Amino acid sequence: MATGETPIPDLPVSLLAEIERVAREQGRSVSQVLADAVIRYLRDEQWQRLKTYGRERATAMGLTEADVPRLVEESRRENGQAR
Description:
Layout: H1 13-26, H2 30-60, H3 68-78
Helix pairs in contact: 1-2
């Protein structure tokens, strides 16, 4: 790790070696690679929570996947976007 970088958490040696390899190949620091990984992880977690919320709301409303085309068409008509 370069001087002045933020210390990284304790990681298995093999994982750290892989992260360092990727960082070298990309011309980035280990911290940058880890920050990118954490950002992707947090976005994925947010997306998973949103999908869970959507499924729960659809179930509560008695909607199924088969209802989606009709609902999209209704929404488009209401918003003046009918095709």
